[in-house]
Amino acid sequence: MQGVMKRYRVFLNIFILFMACNLSAESDNRPPVSNIYILRAAEQLQAPHVVTYRVAEWAQMRGRWIFPDVGYYDTGYGKDQLWFTGAGADIVHSKHVDWEQEFYVAQEAGPAAHNKRSLWIWPVFDARFRPRLIGQFVAYPSLPLDRAQPWGFDVDRGKIEWAATSHWQAGVGYAGGICAARTWNNSPFLTVSRRTPAGKVELWLERIRGGAQVQLRYFLVTGER
Fold first, then answer.
1. What proportion of the chain, given as a percentage, has pLDDT over 90?
2. 177: left (phi over 0), alpha (psi -120 to 50) or beta
């Protein structure tokens, strides 16, 4: 475990050094600051219609840099909680592809917790195939920072959407992963989203093990861009 921890620390130190070098180069030009708010919740469609998870997250984007980024996750009723914090940067920003890279440290809490700690390597890839056809892919490994936490890998979302208008989008996607159960979960979904001045609202109808669930995802950006 000590050897693994040393490798993680070397990896993080390289990334921090990369950020520091770029920040010093940009210090003469004050970057614009945006606040990003994310809320998510899901409910099982079949009886007993339990809440399967909830997420609340806040981050600031300072030019190309993302810092701070803090959030909270639970399984719906607070028994299994997860607090996370991270930072990152907009690595690639072009006409057809965007790549944002963040690193999170997560700490488990709550009455059902086992004090698990993990490091998430969290990339977000956005692609514009055509003016109305867009895609997004987010998949990340969970690297253990203590003995209680197993390794894991999750596809948070991989989706392709068609923009019917400037406000409405619809598409198909896939989510899945492997962690504590050590078996891969497959969760294909359909999605519809609506952009408004008050933020973007996204609705998922998703197949999960034992049935289906509906997800509601909300995303708001305020401040300078």
1. 74
2. left
pLDDT digits (tens, 9 = 90+) for 178-201: 976 678 999 999 999 999 999 999
pTM for the predicted model, two decimal places: 0.84
CB-CB contact of 193 with 219 (8 Å): no
Query: Which residue type is seen at 45?
Result: L
Q: Is the peptide bond before 68 cis (omega within 30 degrees of 0)?
A: yes
- Written as six digits, the tokens of 130 are 């055509």
Give the structural domain span for 156.
Answer: 31-223
Residue 8 lies in a domain: no
Give one DSSP letter per residue of 154-172, joined into a string: EEEEEEEEEESSSSEEEEE
Q: Distance (Å, rounded) from C-alpha 108 to C-alpha 104?
A: 13
* Distance separating alpha carbons of residues 41 and 214, to the nearest angstrom: 9
Rounded Cα distance between 50 and 5, Å, is 37
CA distances from 219 to 18, 56, 57, 117, 154 (A): 29, 10, 10, 27, 21
- DSSP for residue 6: H
The whole-number average pLDDT for the span 19-39 is 71
Element (H, E) at 19: helix 2-25
Number of domains within the chain:
1
Question: Residue 79 in contact with residue 112, Cβ under 8 Å?
Answer: yes
CATH number for the domain that contains residue 186: 2.40.160.40
User: How much is the average pLDDT of 145-170?
Assistant: 95
